[in-house]
Design brief:
Layout lengths: L22 E14 L2 E14 L3 E5 L6 H9 L9 E8 L2 E2 L5 H10 L1 E4 L13 H6 L8 H7 L5 H5 L8 H13 L5 E5 L7 H18 L2 E6 L2 H7 L2 E6 L2 E7 H6 L4 H9 L39 H5 L5 E4 L2 E3 L4 H4 L23 E16 L2 E16 L3 E5 L6 H8 L7 E6 L6 E3 L3 H4 L6 H7 L8 H14 L16 H13 L5 E5 L7 H18 L2 E6 L2 H7 L2 E6 L2 E7 H6 L4 H8 L35 H5 L5 E2 L5 E2 L10
Parallel strand pairs: 3-8, 3-9, 6-7, 7-8, 15-19, 15-20, 17-18, 18-19
Antiparallel strand pairs: 1-2, 1-4, 4-5, 9-10, 10-12, 11-12, 13-14, 13-16, 20-21, 21-23, 22-23
Length: 658
């Protein structure tokens, strides 16, 4: 099945670019090298790029491709500690940043340049209230309340009096967006501004950027590794790999029919709602190229199945694939004969009809209450409310929802890291499940070797040393790591390698239940593909039950047999994955699906900020639900159950069995 992006952009998106063709950013033959430890690294090589007024360019590529270095170069923020060496021309509004005084650069950043970073906490002063930080940016005559209202904060007066740590992640990102955009800069660099956000907050930020671009005519360099996000927001796309531009052009052209093999790999790696659940995602394994790659060669030749000696020796010249569409590949004519389709490989997945009926985890009526400090003393927070979960051997249940829905709290209780306030948890073997955390790096002991980390899981079994070493080698092979990493420390491994080590630690002594807490949310698309396919293959081979927490319904659909949708501690809908994703019943599930980027529904995503209002008696989603009735505010709906193993808590749904 061919992969398609449902691109539904503003009807006049490209018309927002003014008639004046002169660019606000012009980069010519840019090369940047940085010092890392004792080595000198060439981060960017021969970059040529223009950005016009009112244009949004998405800069895509994997981690380490040089995206952030390019963004920091445009902002004049390359760290002095890295001893940056910049060659070429970086012209912003006619000023060459490679030959500009510090005073002129500061003026340019203050009045003409804006930046929105991935982690707003690293950019906001934790010791200053929001109003103080906004006053540093806006003129005194500008209303700070109006500034926050324009970025969608529903209670701006309260937000102005808070410190950054007192705001939610979405609120902090909106404050950072207000500081960057509402002074109407000519150029904005947005470096992964939505990566760590829930899909609903991400949708709001993307819609906000498009609206502000329309009003202010600002030019954007939007850095992302998510092609779905690029599909929603970009006019043009630039694909970067190992410091080199491999393809650039109109977003709709590149996303629907990419010409470069690396762009095809990125596109095939992305998980969509139409992804074949039985087909393996595109996974790029670095090839042992028979041709030694030279510095002037194509950097992707070691990962490309079409690579030749010419690729290793010489970087290809630009080929015009279409109007404004350039690709850098020696084999474009050959690639035209290869259909752009998802991989035909099938993974050996156990069909649902053959799944074991043996229950390995039975959770009934679990509740969790926390005592938290408030302005008038202490109050009780209901984190989980009457949660049921029954997991069979070899089954995967995905738990989805926004931050604060109770997903991670549920997982921590199942792992024995928290104690439930009430309810029962029955485990088949009596042993605790094992858990793969979101940040693999922080869950691995940095001063221990990989072999020591893995062998530590076997110490209680008193297995002889020779047998432990054999098991370590075997499990490294199972997770796709070479035996050569056994003597490496986790700090020296890549993000994908650390995640595989974390998984290996869990399965070297296979549990009945494996818990996964957002294990792919911070990974590049290709690493997400590798990790998901690895988890599925291990689950099938070892016949483990799995509870997989995510905020992405596309990922949940791909990996799971059943989905549980949680909101403010309650399971509001559950059932078979395919039914939940194709025929959602609860308004909250529909909102999550509408917020997925690249699916063509983002215009229907929620426009307002998440309400923080407490609604202890009625449906907690009622303040955000456009279909809410008086009874939704007054009482929580009775669960409706259906013959297809579906359950939904909503007054709007009829015809089920109570």
């Amino acid at each position: 099945m061919a992969l398609t992006f449902r691109i539904k952009k503003d009807p006049g998106a490209m018309n927002n670019i003014v008639d004046d063709p002169s660019p606000v950013v012009e980069i010519r033959d840019l090369s940047v090298s940085l010092s890392r430890g004792q080595q000198r690294v060439q981060a960017l090589k021969g970059i040529n790029l223009t950005i016009n007024q009112g244009e949004i360019i998405a800069l895509v590529g994997e981690s380490g491709s040089g995206k952030s270095v390019l963004g920091m170069t445009i902002l004049g923020l390359l760290p002095p500690t890295a001893d940056p060496a910049v060659d070429g021309i970086v012209s912003v509004l006619g000023s060459d940043l490679t030959n500009i005084s510090d005073r002129k650069l500061r003026e340019l950043r203050r009045y003409q340049l804006g930046a929105v970073f991935q982690d707003p906490m690293s950019s906001l002063n934790p010791s200053m209230k929001v109003k103080g930080q906004l006053r540093e940016v806006f003129e005194p005559v500008r209303s700070l309340v109006d500034a926050l209202t324009e970025v969608g904060i529903t209670d701006p007066e309260s937000a102005l009096e808070r410190f950054p740590f007192e705001l939610s992640g979405g609120q902090r990102q909106r404050v950072m967006t207000a500081m960057a955009l509402l002074k109407e800069p000519s150029v904005v660099v947005a470096d992964e501004p939505t990566t760590a956000l829930d899909v609903t907050i991400q949708a709001q930020i993307l819609n906000l950027i498009k609206e502000l671009r329309t009003n202010s005519k600002s030019a954007f360099l939007f850095i992302t590794h998510d092609l779905g996000v690029a599909a929603e927001i970009a006019d043009r796309i630039v694909v970067l790999y190992n410091g080199k531009v491999l393809e650039q052009g109109i977003a709709s052209d590149i996303l629907t029919n990419p010409s470069h093999p690396y762009t095809r790999h990125l596109t095939n790696s992305r998980i969509t709602m139409t992804q074949d659940k039985e087909g393996m995602l595109s996974r790029r394994e670095m090839r042992v190229n028979q041709f030694a790659l030279k510095p002037e060669g194509c950097p992707y030749s070691n990962g490309c199945e079409f690579a030749s000696e010419n690729c290793a020796n010489q970087f290809p010249a630009a080929t015009e694939v279409g109007p404004g569409w350039l690709s850098y590949c020696h084999h474009l004519e050959e690639l035209k004969l290869v259909n752009f389709e998802l991989s035909n490989r099938k993974r050996a997945k156990t069909p649902p009809s053959r799944s074991s009926s043996e229950v390995v985890l039975d959770v009934a009526g679990v509740e969790k209450r926390f005592r938290i400090r408030s302005s008038d003393g202490y109050r009780e927070l209901q984190a989980l409310d009457n949660v049921d979960l029954k997991l069979s051997k070899g089954e995967v249940i995905a738990v989805v929802g926004e931050s604060g829905s109770g997903k991670s709290t549920l997982l921590r209780i199942l792992a024995g890291l928290e104690t439930a306030s009430s309810g029962s948890i029955i485990r088949r073997s009596g042993s605790l499940p094992k858990m793969v955390f979101q940040d693999a790096g922080s869950s691995l002991t940095p001063w221990m070797k990989v072999s020591e980390i893995l062998a530590e899981s076997l110490l209680q079994k008193r297995i002889p040393k020779v047998e432990r070493e054999l098991l370590v080698s075997q499990v490294l092979g199972k997770v796709g790591l070479s035996d050569g990493v056994r003597d490496s420390k986790s700090s020296s491994l890549s993000g994908g390698q650390r995640q595989r080590v974390a998984i290996a630690r869990c399965v070297i002594d296979p549990p009945d239940v494996l818990l996964c807490d957002e294990p792919t949310s911070a990974l590049d698309a290709s690493l997400v593909a590798n990790t998901l396919d690895l988890l599925v293959s291990l689950k099938d081979e070892l016949q483990m039950g799995m509870v997989f927490v995510t905020h992405d319904l596309a990922v949940a659909r791909y990996i799971s047999d059943r989905i549980m949708v949680m909101y403010k501690g309650r399971v509001v809908e559950s059932g078979p994955s395919e039914l939940i994703c194709t025929h959602p019943l609860h308004p909250y599930t529909k909102m999550l699906l509408a917020s997925l980027p690249g699916e063509g529904n983002l215009v229907d995503a929620p426009k307002s900020e998440v309400s923080q209002a407490e609604n202890m008696t009625g449906c907690p989603f009622a303040p955000r639900c456009s279909s809410a009735m008086d009874r939704c505010i007054e009482a929580y709906p009775t669960s409706m159950r259906f013959e297809d193993r579906r359950q939904v808590d909503c007054f709007l749904v009829k015809g089920g069995m109570r």
